[in-house]
Amino acid sequence: MIQSVDRAVAVLLELQGARRLRLTELANRLSLPNSTVHGIVATLVTRGMVEQDASGRYALGPGVLRLSNVYLDSNELRLRALSWTEALAERSGCAVRVGVPLERDIVVIHHVLRPDGSHQMREIGIDIPAHGTALGKAVLAFDARRAEELLAAAPLPKLTGRTCVDGEELAEQLARVRDDGIATALDEAILGESEVAAPIFDAHDAVVGAVGIVLSSSAATGDRLINDEVRRTAVSISRELGASAWPPRSRPRTSAGS
Q: Under CATH, which architecture does the 75-240 domain have?
């Protein structure tokens, strides 16, 4: 690991969570000398990744947005999923999300709004603890290394009163996902919101993400037709990415990403 790069990333992540910070606040959060942090942020400011306001506080700069747009526009999983997710939204009448794993979270990289024309917010870029969402469970079920690391990181955070944080129960849920390819979450990330998701595999038969629908908790998550639609969409996207089977017969132990 290159220390200077690691510290620069740490600065960006701190600013992501705190919005605006003075140099001393940022240095305290990172447990680094003021002089070290000043050199890092000064470099990031020149590159547009960080900006400094009139009060001397630092915040993320517009250069970060440029990177995020490039990522979305060049991400093969998202590009392959566009038409399939639009079709799934139309058939199900639900919002559709595609997520990829990042450490212990799932990051939404594509979001198709419900086709009913109601007011909705796009959720691209949000990150959710993997154990609290169907997208995350769909990935964890086919990524043994990631699942083992997460289960060893107890206690897991509770997002709602219904979030599954018991290691044995979560392991049982992941085993059921491996059996039928469908993961569900009922009121686990947001009260009143349920999810149904299925894993997506690439040409190396590694799980690279998941696709799922979001519906109200008053709707049944065990609806066979809904499950079949989500599963069919995951199969189609996986085939576009070159997967040889769904799910892979070899049951891959690791994902392609980190």
A: 2-Layer Sandwich (3.30)
